[in-house]
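Hey, I was hoping to borrow your eyes for a little while. No rush at all, and the record is pasted right below:
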Amino acid sequence: MVHEAPPGPVSPSGRIDSIDALRGVALLGVLAINLVTEFRVSIFEQFLSMARPVSAADRAVETFLMLFVNMKAFALFSLLFGIGLAIQFERLSENPRRALLLLRRLIVLLLFGLIHLGLIWNGDILTEYALAGLIVLPLLFGPRWLLGAGAAVFLGVYLAMQFWPPAGLFPTFTSMQLAVQEANRIYPTGSFADVLALRLREIPLIAPLHVFVFPRTIALFLFGAFVWRCGILRKPHQPLLFSTAIVCISVGTSLVLAGSNPTAAAAGGRLATAIGTIALAVGYGALIIATANLPRGNAILGWFAPLGRMAFTNYLAQSLIFGWIFYGYGLGLFGSLGAANALVLGLFAAATGQDDDELVAGVAHTDVVRPDRRSQHLGDVAKRPVTRLVSERVVDLLEVVEVEYEQRDFRLESLGTRQLARQVHEHEARVRQPGERIGERRLVSLLEHDRVVDHGAGLLAHAIEQPPVIVAVEARRGVVHGQRANQTIAERERAHESRLQRRRQRMTGAQRARDQIDGLREPFFELRHASCCGPPHI
């Protein structure tokens, strides 16, 4: 009887790079909004007409983010979550435990969201996504039209709430003003216990914001699943995607600008902003997918794909990093940085903390003369608690990955063990002279040509049969410069086999000699035993 192994994450070479890049862009937008409007200052400050002195650069950054990124990045991220759910649902179609596996994923996500909400940061979005996913999951068993109809219904509910918001849903002006004053007093100087207590007190004021956008989240989940079922992302049609991007971005920009006009009516402005936000999110997604599938798209958007592959881990890392930077138990920069400086700091943390090949040591593209003496990345330090608390199996469970049908029987384990099973392991030898063979070690930077690693030095799913041999061409001051030399490798392989053959021959000859000597010694030892011990007793 064959036991079906649990599905596991596919290798980077088997993923849809355009979706990973789009998820990375959306996550970067979420990071920027969280940083500028929620970590840097109180989340309620954006809803109050508080005159804070800002520079021209800060005002420009805030205006751009509020018009073109705020809520758009979250909408795009919700759309991608729905696409991920549909991909998971489809790839598990042959698994009889499909519903149970997806339900378990969402329940675990809910648990992590509650932990993140209560202990790390109260701006958590994982809890909302898990609850919305539990509502969307039964609808995935229905036909494609049901997904589209469900998306339209929930979107209609959300747009209707712009005109008729539930009475008493939002906190009062006075309560938000008091929350801002308390945040300015505790967050910059308070201990971890003080900050935690204030975050817990703010949850009842933040929860209505999630309730208000919850129908939109469900609608975008269903719309993302509908888009995947339509096959638009399987074989992207470039003219259609670029046309959709132009129309949606143009219409969305016009509506957002109209909604932000102070002379617009309150309800009409909210409706225009809501529709424009969704249109911009769809336009951004179509533009990025179309660009990523261009011949040079990987060079343009390749940096974002690793960020999107590790979306769950990076989202938790941003809470730990920014919490340490802005709250009193860390650097305490809350309320002291402008929007421009905070955004630069956040982008620097994202760029330095992001590492696509965390399980494989980075290999320099050129010769390394000496190690670079610089401090360790701040992002790496802040990521350690995540790696200690979240096991690899849980991270693999929560990441939005594509599980190929052909690879459903693969064991759930990290890359690097199964793929390197055929590697010949030897002790690292000292290089005593130029041209000396170092050993059959898999240097990642020299394996791109053989399709063992990708352009980012990440291991691919497949591996070559024979690992290459690296020849040292120069050895000075402990630094080895290596190159691939096929002819030299072949010659040294033949010489090595010849030496092994001669060694085996010598060992065979020595063994024969030892056997002959042992044959001569046996009568002597028997005679000596007899003379010393006498005849055996009967």
Remarks:
- Residues 15-350 form one domain.
- The mean pLDDT is 76.
- The radius of gyration is 31 Å.
- The longest helix spans residues 486-533.
